[in-house]
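Objective 1b: paired records.
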Amino acid sequence: MPTVLIVDDEQFFLDSVVRGLSAALPGTAFLQASHGEQALEQIARQPVDVMVTDLNMPVMDGFQLLTQLVQREITPAIIVMTAFGTADIERELRNLGAIDYIEKPIDLPTLTNSIRRALEQRAGGYLRGINLAGFLQLLVIEQKSCRLVIRQGAQSGELYFEQGNLAHAVLNDLQGEAAAHAIVTWTNPEIALHPPAKNAPRTIRAPLDQLLLDAHHMLDERQRESREAPDSTVEDLFLEETPSAPSVPAKPPPAKEIRDMGNIKESLMAIMDIEGCIGAALADWKSGMCLGTIGGTPAFNLEMAATSNTEVVRAKMRAVANLNLKETIEDIFVTLDTQYHLIWFIKNAPNLFFYVAIRKGPGSLALARYKLSQIESELTL
């Protein structure tokens, strides 16, 4: 039987939510905890599949609870209850990794759907552990002030947050954005949460979402350049950089036509790993043909969607030509009530594009664009 743990310091709220969820999700066991320490005790007695937690609690708050889960390598799907879940955050929220969120006061059907989604993903083999980027985004949402000590292997760095803004970072001899770029790409960190530091300098001005994207883009470029040096580590790739050294974008390979379509299926399967992805397709806007699809629903035909959007692409291409714009289109983005639809052009085959549908709630456009650029680079040419 799948097990869900609800963590909140208001007992009346706990009792009413568990009653409602038990009726809506029969066959699911629900546990309760009033704060982080009780939650860890519950998990020690019985592993849970999903944990729904408040952040502001006595004894041990939600942030400390999440850091403990990271250090103990406990990986339930996480749903955070927050008073800051506004429409603006829903539109602008970036790489939350494993962490979903729901706004207080709680809407029971919305929470039910979020838990059901998490249970389905775990039943399908998609285990979602907490990642560092997701934890940092929670600090931004909750406007938290704190000092994080983050370790990975022999490396140890510090991140300083002031009212939800990443203000300073330190890693060995690096400070500011150079240090932050290295730390935020760590994949198996140990996180310790401390009170905010007094008089910490302000060396970082970029918003966290932009810093995350820049860091992963830079890491991807350095990994590509260092493939001939297999002994290099992630830390080596960043520590070679000095704060004054500019990042030089990798030159794209020369344009050429697709001649081997053998890994289209692999590319589409990789797109489905993007958080919140409903389905994806590869299409040729010049011929109107759909070259491959994955996902979708009985009510959402991916092949029809992809071929229909070849007309959208043609119309946009005509508009660019009529305006005499000497630029290329990188992507086309459409926002629906509950979904994002993204048309992503293949740079090395300008007549091809990926068509991707993503759920608004768990989906992250910034992360989706980053992953699409990676997948595109691996498409056989």
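Objective 1b, second protein:
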Amino acid sequence: MSNSYRAQGYTSAQTVSVLTGASLMLTMSMGMRQSFGLFVAPVTQDLGISVADFTLAIAIQNFTWGLTQPLIGAFADRFGCRVMTILGSILYAAGLGVTMVAEGPIALWVGLGFMVGLALACTGLSLALAASARAVSPLKRSVALGTISAAGSIGTFIAAPLAQGLIDSSSWVIAMVGFIALCAVMIPAAFFTGAGDKAALESASQSREEGPEMSLREVLIEAWGHKGYVTMAVAYFVCGLQLIFIAAHLPAYLEICGQSPTLGAQALGVIGGFNAIGCYILGWLGGKYPKHYLLGGVYILRSAFIVVYFLLPATPMTTLVFAAVMGLLWLGVAPLVTGLVGQIFGLRNMATLTGIAFFCHQTGSFIGAWGAGLLFDAFGNYNLAWQIGVVIGITVGMAQLFMNDKPTDRMTGAVPA
């Protein structure tokens, strides 16, 4: 165990509590979030609303999540993760409750959109990874972050079958009750995620390793002044754009190509399964090789496989192979980005800085979903959409390879504790 890790004051029990709690919280939170597509048909039919009304709720959810993540992260950095993760778990259940009693689109936009989006900012990747990064030694950090990220994909295999089974046997309202039960599991998990808050806050106030305490304004100025961080945030924007294009538009593309609608669902399932593997592998590789090289390689490989897939005829075989490759390159970027933030700026303001980067990611997701739809409406196909995604993907991938990953002057000039 390194001296810097011991200086944080974590015990083995605290470490196990944080990692277990973060994994379980993320499993439930992301599992439900990735299963909301199952409610489109039953909710729109029952309430007599359009598909666009429902998908606008999902768009609001994603935008709220990204917009509030830096603020939630800043609060967690100052006062600890526990209060935010517990409140987020309760808010998640409340948002689902509002959705259950909806009689029209407005309640959906408030409950499933705004409230669940804010809850995801408290219970999603950013806070789970920030808490976990503080709880493990630098040598084990990258693998731990990869393992925690993989938990977000595993949750789909719990939440999706639960929701579909309850929808088929009863109704979508009862399926929402099932999801509220998963939120009840999240609450104790959220409590244990914050098991190391006291040690982290004491370390932040006492340790000289990361220099003096900084205001939010100083944190933002330092981040903007590090061109490597800016490059990484812009690349994360493109990451979100590429992923949501595939997740939101692949099923429609397959229908245009004359494939069965079930192939789209199968492809998304394959992406989720292989994503769990990819998160762990990239987390493990991040502990052995420079993280910015791995990130650049992911963006370039993604773009290359998008070219190959869209130039070939869409068949079940090519689609499922493409989905498996994309799954390996999916959310594995999250532990790499989190690890780079810790490497450049230290751990004290990690939730704030990963939150800002995640806001860029979600902005890319919003534009990717909406922009690809606009291009399809204008041209009747997805050709220009995937071509733009490839060009900017390769561009930011190359920039990511050459980014500055050196720690800030504050970190290099700080006096060791």
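The mean pLDDT is 87. The chain has two domains: 10-194, 214-406.
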